[in-house]
């Protein structure tokens, strides 16, 4: 069976041999440690998104919002938590500033690259 695997942002194609009765498709997570932290400000390649926007690194649903509009924040501060495939992903502030706009609500489904919060 041929699999596509991404490790540290680098994609690899690998072949593995699996006994047919044990075949199962899904996501394998190694490490089991603390939730992954992502902070990816939008770039010019994301249409219609402010350069100061924090965007979703993956599709999922908004599990928690930990800030409010007008809050002063620090770089690296957790702004919200996304849930995807029963895994929580903390979204952090790429820079210090003020929360200018929160563009999502708890329970809302989001797509990868969607603007979540704008930092002024």
From TrEMBL:
| Catalyzed reaction equations | N(6)-biotinyl-L-lysyl-[protein] + hydrogencarbonate + ATP = N(6)-carboxybiotinyl-L-lysyl-[protein] + ADP + phosphate + H(+)
Enzyme class, spelled out: ligase
Domain of life assignment: Bacteria
- Record's signal peptide: none
Q: Which UniProt keywords apply?
A: Biotin
The protein's matches in InterPro entries, at most eight in alphabetical order, are given as: Biotin_BS (IPR001882), Biotin_Carboxyl_Carrier/Decarb (IPR050709), Biotin_lipoyl (IPR000089), Single_hybrid_motif (IPR011053)
Enzyme Commission identifier(s): 6.3.4.14
Residue ranges annotated for the Lipoyl-binding domain, each copy included:
44-120
Q: Which CDD domains match?
A: biotinyl_domain (cd06850)
Query: Which Gene Ontology molecular-function terms are recorded?
Result: biotin carboxylase activity
Protein name (Swiss-Prot/TrEMBL)? biotin carboxylase
Q: What is the lineage of its organism?
A: Bacteria, Bacillati, Actinomycetota, Actinomycetes, Mycobacteriales
């Amino acid at each position: 069976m041929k699999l596509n695997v991404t490790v540290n942002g680098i994609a690899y194609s690998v072949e593995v041999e699996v006994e047919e009765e044990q075949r199962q498709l899904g996501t394998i997570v190694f490490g089991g440690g603390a939730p992954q932290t992502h902070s990816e400000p939008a770039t010019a390649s994301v249409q219609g998104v402010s350069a100061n926007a924090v965007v979703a690194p993956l599709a999922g649903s908004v599990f928690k919002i930990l800030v409010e509009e007008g809050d002063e924040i620090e770089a690296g501060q957790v702004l919200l938590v996304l849930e995807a495939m029963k895994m929580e992903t903390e979204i952090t502030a790429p820079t210090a500033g003020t929360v200018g706009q929160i563009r999502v609500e708890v329970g809302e489904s989001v797509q990868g690259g969607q603007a979540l919060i704008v930092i002024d």
